[in-house]
Structure formats: structure tokens, C-alpha cells
Amino acid sequence: MTGMSRPPVDDAWLVVPLFNEAAVVGDVVRGVLPTFPHVVCVDDGSSDGSAAVARAAGARVLEHPVNLGQGAALQTGITYALSRGARYVVTFDADGQHRVEDAADMVDLARREDVAIVFGSRFLDDRTDAGLLKRIVLKVAVWFTNQSTGLRLTDAHNGLRVMRADAARGVRLRQDRMAHASEIVLQLGRTRLPWREHPVHVLYTDYSRGKGQSLWNSVNILVDLVFR
Amino acid sequence: MLIQVILLVAIGWVAVVLNRSTADARHQAIRRLLLAAFIVAAAASVLFPSILSRIANVIGVGRGADLLLYGLVIAFLSFIATSFRRMSRMQSQLTALARELTLARAALVDRGVVPDVAGPDAPTPGGPAVSSDDPRDD
Predict the structure, then answer these.
(1) Residue A115 contacts residue A109 (beta carbons within 8 Å)
(2) What is the per-residue pLDDT across A188-221, written as a single tens digit (0 to 9) for each?
(3) Which residue stretches belong to region Disordered (chain B) (predicted)?
(4) Assigned domain for B60 exists
């Protein structure tokens, strides 16, 4: 499970939606580049110079001219990665809460077992300490996503996913804002391609806790999903 | 009476403003017909206020003013609904446009036509733009 010793994954593109994460995105990009040489950050109209930081750290940076939302940034990155011939598209958060070892393990799993989609899950083991209230909200989100997608996932709204190119081509996100996390599961489920879940460890740092989705946001997500 | 003049002028103004928007032909036609009916009804209720009261009484509402309020509530709600739909459609058009722009620019950068630097108004973290020659972009 050591990330340093493995050879770089050069047929995968890491897609990192980026919005006002200048404080951490440089370290995140430098941390993933040895394992994933192809990293595209989609800067979604940041006002803190995140794009320049990510570019200096060595990522390929695309910039939305205006802020559109995380779902829109994700879709732009996926489309770009496919256009560059990615065999695997890995979605990865910019705030440093995902571990590159998990991402690499998930690509390995997809390759080894010939599955098209690997979802990261916080709840397959007990490494991730999310806090009671957050656990409850996430469990409700999981239930809601499973009801509407027909898949049986243990985690929803986890930003770490691996999609083989054929699965990624089935994704057309129309939810620009946070509700894309359910939409992407729905669209990937519709591809009928084989999928797995893989346990991941989400690092809740003070930084990510400070920026993370507030509980209010789950109300917005629900409204976006119902009225659209 | 002065109030009748004021109200008629206001109704006429609304009629002109609402008719200037463009959409697909059938929806636009329906909207204009409804609007025409509304204008006639509004003008009639101003000129002959007793008509409104009589209609209200027939359908079991106490006063004409109450009927007006109910109608207004429904009109307002439908306005919220249509503008919500219009806003989401505009948002997805904006997204498509912005994505196309971003990807077109990225393709130019990847082909080496334009350098990979931030746009002119892009914010930088305390200093001039940092442009790095990305070795992976050939």
C-alpha cells in the first residue's frame, strides 16, 4: 500500500475541480504528480490565484471564465481528459482530503478485475472519522442516491472515483452545483458497466472541515435534485 | 376618476413590456393571448368595478378585492415558476458556452498556438502571473 514505490500511472488523468484552494492545491498537485503524471485542474473562477499555484506546481490548468460550480468543472475536466486519450479518469478533490495511494489502488483494482467504475467509499472500513452529524447526513444522502440510481452504494458524495474511458463517456453532468455527486452515480449506473466500491480514507483536516459542505448545503442539494 | 386613469396607464405599460420578450412561437402566442385576456379583464374591472364583485360573489368569494388578491397570488407563483425555469435554462447555456471556451483555449495551448498563461484579469497570489512551461503539454 505504499505510494512511493509504484510506477507512475501514465494512462490515467486526474481531474481536480478547483475553486479557491490556493492554500493547499500546490501541495496536493505536488503530492499526486509522482504517481499520476497527468493532472488537470479545472479552475472554476477562483479569486485567490489558485490557478497560478496549481500551474506552478506542475498541473495542466484549465480556467472557466466565470464561476459555474463544481459539477461543471468536473465535466469540463472529464471531457478534456478524454480528449487527451485518457484510459482512466480519476476524480480527485483539490482540498487534500483524498489520498493518492487510494486513487492508485482504485486504478489497480479497475485494471485487475476489469471493472469500468470504482467508487471510493468512506464507510467500507472505520478509518474515516466523520463525526456523528455528518455521518447521519451522509447516510441519508446514500439512501437517497441509492433510491434514485438503483445502485447499492455504501457512500455517496465521495469525490474520489475512477472511471474507465467507456464509462466516463457516459457522463454528461447537467447539475452544475453540488448535486452532481448523485447525478454522476446515476449516469454511471445507466452505462450498465461493471462497478466496484473501494475503501478510502478521507482526511478531515481542520482546513477541509472549515471549507467542507455545510449541512445547509444538503438542503440545497436536495432542492437541486428534485426541481430540475 | 383619477384612479381609473392611473390603473389603465399601468396596465397598458405592463402589456407593452411583457410583449417584448422572445421565446418559441407557440409559447409566445399562448402567453400573448393570456396577456390580452388579462388586459381586457383588468381594464373592465377598473371601468366597471361592480363586475368583479359580482363574479366574486358567484364563485363564493366575498369581495372583488379578495378575488383580485387570489388571482395575483396565482400569477405571482406562476411567474416564479417560469422565471426559475428560464434561469436554469440560461445557466445551462452559460455552462455550455463557458466550457466550450475553456476547452477551445486548452486545445490551442496543447497545440502550442498560445502560451499557457492565465487570462489578463486572472488574480495571482501576491505577485505577477507565474507561467510554467508544462513539460507534458506538447
Answers:
(1) yes
(2) 988 989 999 999 988 877 666 665 556 677 777 7
(3) 115-138
(4) yes
Instruction: Establish if B11 belongs to a structural domain.
Output: yes
| Residue among A52, A76, A176 minimizing CB distance to B103 | A76
* Domain hosting residue B52, numbered range: 2-82
Shortest distance, CA B130 to any CA of chain A (angstroms): 6
Q: Is residue B58 part of a domain?
A: yes
In a domain, B138, yes or no: no
Alpha-carbon Rg for chain A, nearest whole angstrom, is 16
A contacts of B80 (beta carbons < 8 Å): none
Q: Which residues contact A96 (CB under 8 A, 6 or more apart)?
A: A24, A27, A28, A31, A203, A205, A207, A208
Of B88, B106, B116, the CB nearest to A80: B106
ipTM at complex level: 0.81
Reported as a pLDDT band with limits 50, 70 and 90, residue A46 is: very high
Distances (CA, A) of A139 to A131, A159, B11, B16: 12, 16, 53, 52
Q: Are A45 and A67 in contact (CB under 8 A)?
A: yes
- Name the minimum distance, in Å, from the CA of B93 to any CA of chain A: 10
Domains and CATH numbers, chain A: 12-226 (3.90.550.10)
Question: Residues of chain A with pLDDT > 70: what percent?
Answer: 88
Quick check: B123 and A46 CB within 8 A? Answer: yes
Q: Say how many domains are in chain B.
A: 1
Q: What is the pLDDT of residues B43-55, one digit of tens each?
A: 888 888 888 888 8
